[in-house]
Amino acid sequence: MRDRQTMLRSLTAHRALIRRTPALVLAALTAICTGAQAQLPLAQGSQLPGRTATQQASTGADWVYTVKEGEHLDGLAQELLATPFTGAQLLIHNRLPAHTVFAAGDTLRIPLSWLRQQPEPAKATAVTGNVRIISASDGRQRPLAEDTLIRVGDEILSRTGNATIELADGSTIRINPNSRLIFNKLTQYGKAGMVDTRLRLDHGGISTHVRPLERGGARFEVETPSAVAAVRGTAFSLQSHPGTTDLQVTEGVVAFGPAGKTRNIPAGFSASVDANRPGVVDIYRLPPAPEPNPLPPRLQALPAELSWNSNALHRIDIFEADSGRWIKSDEVHGSHYALNYLDNGRYTINIASLDTRGVAGLPANVMVDVDLTARPATLVAPEEGAGVNDDLPEFQWSYRGSNEVGRVEISETEDFGNLVATSEWAPDDTALPSRPLTPGQYYWRVVTEAGGNSVATTSPRPFVINGTLPPVHILSINYIDSQVRIFWEKTDTAGGYLLQLSEGPEFRNIVKEATVQDTTAALRLIPGRRYFVRLKALSEGPLASRWGPGRELFIE
Fold this sequence. Notes:
Jelly Rolls, six-stranded mixed β-sheet, about 45% strand
């Protein structure tokens, strides 16, 4: 027993020592008492004599996997290997004995044909405007939304919009408006991130940023009707038009051309393929990147002027730095561009010169943070406590901040617990309420917004809608001797009526004026004279009233 414990302590010490030694892989002792073969020299890669039939059958390229802390053979086999390959076969392929124990940093060679392959969907990370997805599973066409998963066979149709797609390995694809992109293959090998991505750009344009691909079977390829572009880690743009395909490479190298006749196009160059000229790849040097003048890294006021050293035709592309959302794209003549109406956040701005073919050159990248703060507006009209006769009054204010939009809010109470009307958000400094206001007292204020998330609100201001009572119409007139009785229609909100009697239709010479509570009145007139009568409704509230039409009176 004592001898066995001594041997165990020796084995533990030996394992601790060799775990600190860099090597291809760690070989553990296969048994306590198996003699000299129990300790194989790691510096020699734990080589075993001869090769088995499984090893002989393994052909093609190997992929090298680096073991991580805590990983063991059974778990690696389950996660990496396809059926029917096993961990035991993996040890044999690497010439390792059974019961091998792994340490972090050790490496294993795995034949590509043994790796487990699985579909790995892409995901839409940003969508702007009208973009559709056609599902390969049911053929239905739906709007593309953020976080939508895109699977093998799905198609993206960008009409007036654009979208940013992220692949399983973190590579990104920006789809231009008026494009059609088909996802022919989205495969991941095991859990290590090695991918095989194959796309077809039927028409339109894309811009890609492909992460460096693992050696072995990793692949990223875009096919068009007239060309193919294959990369191993680069940034490029591709446009497909009837009969032609154009490429611009901004990082790395792209194998580009007709199928089977590609040429390596390095960064700083563009290339074009024309179906009418089989096998020909035209290569051009891209315009150099402009030199932008520095901007403050933090913009607290907009508009801000972006400028650069070149005075040619340029394209400006603005992206949200985090999501990759394509905010806007403009062509600019000259060397200046106004940054305006951007929400708070971080942006990447690309400035690229356009050549005589309209192709964008190498971009200059500008990173900027927009950090706007809204300030309360200054209320102009209606003034404090003012009476307004219009049921759709115009509200006026002035902004005190930068790049702000505002809207009016109207409430019957000072705490604005219940809004009765608002206006649309707009950069204007005047607005009408969203609906007519009935007579009464109200409070109004202006809410301003800057940067999409900074809001300021003015103090409330009271005002009164006077409104108008409808004109009073006389219904009938009865004559009895020298007396006239007049009847008129009732006004529901009236507290009484004002009657005027005049000798002329202009009502300049008033011979009688009286307040009447009822809807009828009797008048005694002088025979042979002509008179004119009219009425208007009265109210104790904030209501203006108008005279009804006059009627002629005459007693012979």
